[in-house]
Amino acid sequence: MSSDLIVALEMISQRFRLKYCRQITKKMAELPKTLEDAIAQACEATKAALADGHTRLCVELVFPELKAMPIAEQFLPTFEGMQLKVFFPDTGAAALARRDWKPETFKIDDIGTGRTPIADKLAPEDEVFLLIEPSAVEVGEVEKLCNAAEGRPVVMLLPRLEDAATVGIGYAARQLRERFIKTLQSCYYIRPLEGAAVYRCYPSPWQVWLEVGDDYKLIAEADKRPAGEELDRILFQATAPTPSDTSTSIEAAPQPKKPGVFKSLQRFLRALSS
Questions:
Q1: Poorest-confidence range of 69-78, 135-144, 176-185, 248-257?
Q2: Is 244 within a domain?
Q3: What angle do CA 83, 187, 112 make, to 5 degrees?
């Protein structure tokens, strides 16, 4: 890596640090009340992670039927004042974004399938790269992009790198995907469960929230994303009735209302499809 590039990377990190470090506090992150709040939180979490020098970031809102294009458009102000290049998985999505967004301060391209080397699509003046909804199929090209960026930040919005429904990738590709995913830092993540949510808003740790009545209660924090048996254990311990007071169990609780981000999300999705 050249000395000029090292200086440029330090200037990028310092720019974010000077602009946003005062906004980054140790206050516990809270579940967003609306989808718009979630996007705003994702923007601030990304700025905070960039200010701390992280260069391979993921922003995940794990909701069914969520359309990437409107989310991405609201996410673009995160990179205001920087030379941004936005990548889509294919030429069709990239062309649609150019038509709808009419970009003047940033460029749009597609990851492609290898016919044009991804490194040739990166310009020296590019300071940060935003990848919209890359899937497990594009992992190879995404890794090449990250390597070609040479330390410049790469942010993946709504990635589907771990999508179990993806078919057509062999053992070697799965091994590549698992290895590459380990190099990524999740700066924002929210996933609704049945009566609970898994949440992370950098720099806060991973959290599990439980729906109790009309609100959500924080029941666990972890350094890594709770999943599988670990998540089941956390939820079981939080909901299992105690011998002394079974009235506090989730089974005995009244049917909770669906406040906050989940109710707002349904309205948002209906508006997009209308």
A1: 248-257
A2: no
A3: 50
